[in-house]
Specification:
It contains 11 helices and 33 strands. The chain is α+β, with helices and mostly antiparallel strands. A 6-stranded antiparallel sheet has the order 6-17-16-32-33-22. Strand 32 and strand 33 form a beta hairpin.
Length: 466
């Protein structure tokens, strides 16, 4: 097994009547209000005739326009001007509908309607903690995109009665290396996501921490499992999302579309129903399950989250959500002025290009790092103001020297962080002489929280709110 390279634990979502029209010239515009005028666009046909209208829908050959007299008309795209054809090409009905009708749609609603399960996570010292189980024993997991592989604290592995081998393995961290043991884990469970029969590493993750530092988690849920379960981490909504049907607990046809429309409904009796709402009354709901069967349930016998969802559900809202079916998280967030970055994946680590004092370099995105940390060599190249190496950072492998470092500017796209005091250290010390310094900094949870970041493994993107 490849050793886990953890640079962790830094202290610091009624049909309209169509009018058949042959030419644009047949339409006579009417006077409209100033507010409506702002929405209308001048469309021109291939003969130069014009009409003001709003584009409200399209298919491969026609567009539907809302005219200034309030009626709708359908036109052939091929008869529009080249400029209008280009405009129509870029029109997305789902995005247009979203902007007009559904700006309150959250990432949670979008993902839960696609079979994701969400977890209301806790932030402790900038770290994300989620409760789960290991071999049936309650386990506190630290969610860490910077951990190449999941790792278990040795005491937690013993408490869960894992089969632990000799301490003849090694894991590497900011302070060097530490002994570890191959460990057989029968079952890891987070909500409905189950991962069976894993060989992981266990180690004393707190051996070199000072007295009084709490042992506030039992295992690191690393990038190996986050990637496998198409995780989404949303700092704005304080939620993490996993796709249980990508785990060993999958109950749907593995050959089916991975984006089936269904939600996980949870009963007070522990049962989980994968389906969508067919009808609802004030006290009961009928679900159409992914198996094709229907089941009627009492609403008050469902979880609080389900009760809240059903209180807000209506047939109209459900129909609307399905008209926005093509939207993905990228659409949802970019329509809300987030900037997105397609990340580069190396092994299980994810990297985004940015700048340090104007010098271009990759940053590793690490939810497990409480604070952003610079590589001291990169900090020198970027001409940061670096103090003496009289500070200490601690993690796996012990302590490492660090320096208080003043940074004028860190930038990722439009996201700008100015005039900060951080720590810099040799991030590659454990790699020996002449290491490949492939990135310049660990972009930690402090800045991820500040910029309301969203990390999306399914879409291979990181989103920041400048």
């Amino acid at each position: 097994m490849n050793p886990s390279r953890n640079l962790l634990y830094l202290l610091l979502r009624r049909p309209r009547r169509l009018i058949a029209v042959s030419v644009l010239a047949a339409l006579l515009p009417l006077t409209v209000s100033a507010d409506d005028e702002q929405e209308f666009r001048t469309f021109t046909d291939d003969s130069g005739r014009q009409v003001k209208a709003i584009l409200i829908d399209k298919n491969e050959s026609t567009v539907m326009l809302k005219l200034q007299n309030g009626k709708n008309a359908k036109f052939e795209i091929a008869k529009l001007s080249a400029e209008d054809q280009e405009f129509v090409k870029g029109f997305d009905p789902a995005k247009d509908l979203f902007l007009k009708k559904c700006t309150t749609l959250t990432v949670r609603e979008l993902l839960e309607l696609r079979g994701y399960e969400s977890f209301d996570f806790r932030i402790e010292g900038n770290h994300i903690h989620v409760n789960g189980e290991m071999n049936g024993v309650k386990t506190r997991f630290l969610i860490d995109t910077g951990a190449h592989s999941s790792v278990i604290h040795i005491d937690a592995a013993k408490a869960a009665e894992c089969e632990i081998g000799p301490m003849d393995q090694e894991i590497y961290g900011i302070g060097g290396k530490a002994p570890a043991a191959l460990t057989e884990v029968k079952k890891i469970k987070l909500g409905e996501s189950i991962i069976n029969d894993q060989t992981l590493l266990s180690a004393d993750l707190f051996e070199d921490h000072p007295a009084g530092v709490p042992k506030d988690f039992d295992a690191i849920f690393g990038a190996d499992f986050l990637s496998r379960l198409d995780a989404v981490i949303d700092y704005k909504e304080y939620r993490m999302f996993l796709k249980p049907d990508l785990s060993d607990a999958a109950v749907v046809d593995p050959n089916a579309d991975g984006d089936l429309d269904f939600r996980l409904f949870k009963g007070d009796d522990g049962k989980v129903y994968r389906g969508e709402v067919k009808t609802k009354t004030s006290s009961a709901v009928t679900l159409k399950l992914t198996t094709g069967k229907e089941v009627q349930l009492s609403i008050n016998a469902l979880s609080e989250d389900d009760e809240e969802y059903l209180a807000n559900w209506s047939p109209e809202r459900d129909i609307f959500m399905r008209k926005c079916r093509s939207l993905v998280v990228q659409d949802l967030l970019e329509l809300r002025k987030y900037q997105s970055f397609e990340y580069e994946r190396r092994g299980n680590h994810i990297f985004v290009d940015g700048e340090l004092n104007g010098v271009k370099m990759p940053f590793m995105i690490d939810t497990g790092a409480g604070s952003t940390l610079l590589d001291v060599t990169a900090a020198k190249e970027a001409k940061c103001d670096i103090g003496p190496m009289d500070q200490k950072i601690r993690g796996v492998g012990g302590e490492a020297p660090a320096a208080i470092t003043k940074v004028r500017k860190i930038q990722m796209g439009r996201a700008l962080i100015e005039n900060r005091t951080l720590l810099s250290a040799d991030l590659f010390l454990q790699l020996g002489e002449n290491p490949d310094r492939s990135y310049g900094a660990i972009f930690g949870a402090d800045f991820l929280r500040e910029l309301s970041a969203v990390v999306n493994y399914r879409e291979s993107r990181v989103f920041l709110r400048p």
